[in-house]
């Protein structure tokens, strides 16, 4: 089973990396760009085949290691 | 219109960051973890309302700035 994890900054949190990308895109002439937010995308391959157990394990991984829940949100999608 | 861009390393390319995450998860006792790959996730807000034009613009952004197409793949999802 594979877990697809998206980690994004919470909406109030300043995103300097996203700002830098937006500025670079404007400098390249992409004037239609309004705002850019950068996040992380992590794919985890799991031996676990039980969906509920896998979800619980990945949730723990995010809380303990992958995401900083003070400033970041995360979403988990499980695929077989 | 919003573009969701996933940038991932091509399958043959070594991913030391993903390896480090996998090792850290094993050290924390998550033994069900097989493999981890880390990628980037970028959300771009566009003023453009025409879907085809937006897709073409984001495709150009990825090729010129966001992704290194020698070692990375990217996928684009457009949402209204």
From TrEMBL, chains A, B:
A GO MF term: phosphoribosylformylglycinamidine synthase activity
Pathway listed: Purine metabolism; IMP biosynthesis via de novo pathway; 5-amino-1-(5-phospho-D-ribosyl)imidazole from N(2)-formyl-N(1)-(5-phospho-D-ribosyl)glycinamide: step 1/2
EC number: 6.3.5.3
Keyword list, A-Z: ATP-binding, Cytoplasm, Ligase, Nucleotide-binding, Purine biosynthesis
SUPFAM superfamilies: PurS-like (SSF82697)
Subcellular location: Cytoplasm
Highest rank taxon of the organism: Bacteria
Coiled coil: none
Enzyme type, top EC level: ligase
Catalysed reaction equations from the record: N(2)-formyl-N(1)-(5-phospho-beta-D-ribosyl)glycinamide + L-glutamine + ATP + H2O = 2-formamido-N(1)-(5-O-phospho-beta-D-ribosyl)acetamidine + L-glutamate + ADP + phosphate + H(+)
Pfam families: PurS
InterPro entries: PurS, PurS-like_sf
Primary role: Part of the phosphoribosylformylglycinamidine synthase complex involved in the purines biosynthetic pathway. Catalyzes the ATP-dependent conversion of formylglycinamide ribonucleotide (FGAR) and glutamine to yield formylglycinamidine ribonucleotide (FGAM) and glutamate. The FGAM synthase complex is composed of three subunits. PurQ produces an ammonia molecule by converting glutamine to glutamate. PurL transfers the ammonia molecule to FGAR to form FGAM in an ATP-dependent manner.
UniProt family annotation: Belongs to the PurS family.
Subunit-level organization: Part of the FGAM synthase complex composed of 1 PurL, 1 PurQ and 2 PurS subunits.
Name the UniProt record assigns to this protein: Phosphoribosylformylglycinamidine synthase subunit PurS
Organism per entry: Dongia rigui
